[in-house]
Design goal:
two-stranded antiparallel ribbon; Peroxisomal nicotinamide adenine dinucleotide carrier; mainly alpha; 3% strand; repeat; transmembrane helix; single chain; MCP_dom_sf; 2 strands; SLC25A32-like
Length: 335
């Protein structure tokens, strides 16, 4: 089994675990980002308070709205990303070693090369998995964007008795049909442009992570490859710090992406309808101010940093366990 495949499978496993733990925070953050208005630009109402409101008004299940496609998307995204990241990185390392053999460089790849490798892997990931995340965003924000319409419990009169009838469930098929009706197949790639620009987020994240990992290993005079020699908690901290730095830089693009992917009801004010990335940025600045680009940032920082730290920790442990099992399986017992 190749290193790329091992890292891809381990990344998918780590991503699923991180997603399960932090998903309610993602739902609240998606609602904060797509909330129109001048108030609560940083989520000042408090994440916990908003989670309680969702539970009280819509039930526990809505905190996990879109969880199934999200888990599929996480497994696909992390698997695709780590697979191509490791494959591109292996090629970059081979090229560096080839240059070293002719007296150029020290045989290792630098921060710029790590950034390029991560950017290539991220671009492939975005183009392949963007439709899944459009569906997830629609499902996470469905109640929020439809509170004035049929998504609420509807009273009907039957046999002179007023009854409350739950609306039909809003599932993946409904979202896909809705998107196709709005924009055809291209509807599944809503927000892909800012998402491609946001490739810089994991690129910055991995650049910081690799740099910190390299420096830490150098200080310990470690000659091993990967995360061997570091504890799971140290990997957790490195992942958290790397993700924090990347999130602070790229958060405004995350808000624009969420706005484009969320449903834009016909009943909404025209200023809340976005024709594209440029139109969304212009209208957000004009009608909501610069603070709108940082709505829900505190929630996102907590969620993304925690998720990234868990993902790195679990992924590295899975990689080490997989390589150990493969090594043992190749060793034949002596007789």
């Amino acid at each position: 089994m190749s290193d790329a495949l091992i890292n891809g499978l381990a990344g998918a496993g780590g991503g699923i675990i991180a997603q399960l733990i932090t998903y309610p925070l993602q739902t609240v953050n998606a609602r904060q980002q797509t909330d129109r208005g001048l108030s609560n630009s940083n989520g000042s109402d408090g994440t916990i308070k908003q989670m309680c409101q969702v539970v009280n008004q819509e039930g526990w299940g809505q905190l996990y709205g879109g969880l199934t496609p999200s888990l599929v998307g996480t497994a696909a995204s992390q698997g695709v990303y780590y697979y191509f990241y490791q494959m591109f990185r292996d090629r970059a390392e081979a090229a560096s070693l080839a240059r070293q053999s002719i007296g150029l460089g020290d045989g290792s790849i630098g921060m710029l090369q790590s950034l390029v490798v991560a950017a290539f892997a991220g671009s492939v990931n975005v183009l392949l998995t963007n439709p899944i995340w459009v569906v997830v965003t629609r499902m996470q924000t469905h109640k929020k964007t439809s509170t004035s319409s049929a998504s609420l419990v509807l009273p009907i009169i039957q046999d002179d008795v007023v009854q409350d009838v739950e609306p039909p469930p809003y599932g993946t098929i409904d979202v896909v049909q809705e998107l196709y009706g709005e924009s055809g197949l291209l509807g599944l790639w809503k927000g892909v442009f800012p998402t491609l620009i946001m490739v810089s987020n994991p690129s910055i994240q991995f650049m910081l992570y690799e740099a910190m990992l390299k420096n830490l290993k150098k200080k310990r005079a470690s000659s091993t490859k990967g995360a061997v020699g570091l504890t799971a908690f140290e990997i957790f901290l490195l992942g958290a710090v790397a993700k924090l730095g990347a999130t602070l830089v790229t958060y405004p693009l995350n808000v624009v992406k969420a706005r484009l992917q969320a449903k834009q009801c016909l009943e909404m004010d025209r200023r809340d309808h976005y024709q594209g990335t440029g139109d969304a940025i212009r209208k957000m600045l004009q009608y909501e101010g610069f603070g709108s680009f940082y709505k829900g940032m505190r929630t996102k920082i907590v969620q993304s940093v925690l998720a990234a730290a868990i993902l790195f920790m679990v992924k590295e442990e899975l990689v080490k366990a997989s390589k150990l099992l493969l090594t043992r399986s190749r060793v034949k017992p002596s007789r």
